[in-house]
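Following up on my earlier thread - several people asked me to post the actual chain instead of describing it. Fair enough. Here it is, all 406 residues.
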Amino acid sequence: MSDPIGTQPTGPLRGLRVLDLTRVLAGPTCVQMLADLGADVVKIERPGAGDDTRGFAPPYMPGTRESAYFVGVNRNKRSVTLDIAKPEGQDIARRLIAQSDVLVENFKVGALAKYGLGYEDLHQAFPGLIYCSITGFGQTGPYAPRPGYDSLIQAMGGVMSLTGEPDGLPQKVGVPVGDLFSGLYGCIGILAALRHRDATARGQQIDISMLDTHVAWLANQGMNYLATGENPARLGNQHPNIVPYQVFPTADGHIVLSIGNDPTFKRFCDAFALTHLLEDSRFATNAARVQNRQLVTDTLTPVMQGQTTTWWVDRLEALKIGCGPINKLSEVFADPHVIARGVVREMTHSSGQTVKVVANPVRLSETPADYRIPPPLLGEHTDEVLHERLGFSASEIAGLREKGVI
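Reply from S.P.:
Thanks for posting it. Predicted structure:
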């Protein structure tokens, strides 16, 4: 699906000004969500280098020298190159901050304070500023100075101990969930802080720790531990609290079977000549099936292997029993439902090429997300922003460029 590119935001956050001092994934994810919903975002990047993810390639987007990684989380932002290590760069940053509602950063703890851009410095000068800091371990605690990396957070946060086959190695999730969740929690925090500022005119700092957010989304597994004091075992593709809720082999592949309660299990047994299982106390209730997990798996595996994945999906869907194929990404993006939902959008990149991006999943009926600015070239909007926001003349901008400030 292709969208006309406009320069004026239409989303519910239009009028909100955000200064983006983030790079890689957690921070850019947070800010892109705000940008998609209408915020006017200026992304500050290092002259000559830019966001680290510009170099996370291949793959590049077809016909461009932009990494797919960078393009994925940097649309609807204007890129300004600025060296904040130079006094002139710090002055420009503060002037941009003076016009901003929100600053988002993911530097190491204390790094921005060296440039007079830490929260305490800016809160005194701009008491209405909302300052969101996203770090590996937060602003306090013994690990605060440490750098945070997604795989490290997945390891320390416990999800790797829960992921993988029972007799295999601990496994990380196949996408960087530590980064992504911290970015989304950061966005939620910013929206809450904006609500508070509307009522009080006071800004505040939002302290997002990747480790904190990782522990928070351990969800039922975290609660299972708190309830029992026992470390949950790795179960591969099985559910810790529901059986059968897992992957089964079929005649030509695999399928996910999700039977969430006893009435659904009865419906399954009735439909596929398995009513004798309902008379067996080891199968009669979910609690019993959890206790007899291996027996349930061994009993149902030959049943599921007897037919193809498509055969099972057709019949299980007709019975309103949860199921689904295990799609490769080529199948995901070709899925008719995914296509109908407009999950992929096309934007005209500044290189002249059309690039595909994954749409914002937040669907608002009155003020939908928009796709007005393609992921920017490095420093593409430096002159525009300095002139528009700060009134710099062409000669002043040229002088800053000569000095390496921009």
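Residues 306 and 365 are 45 Å apart (CA to CA). That should answer part of your original question.
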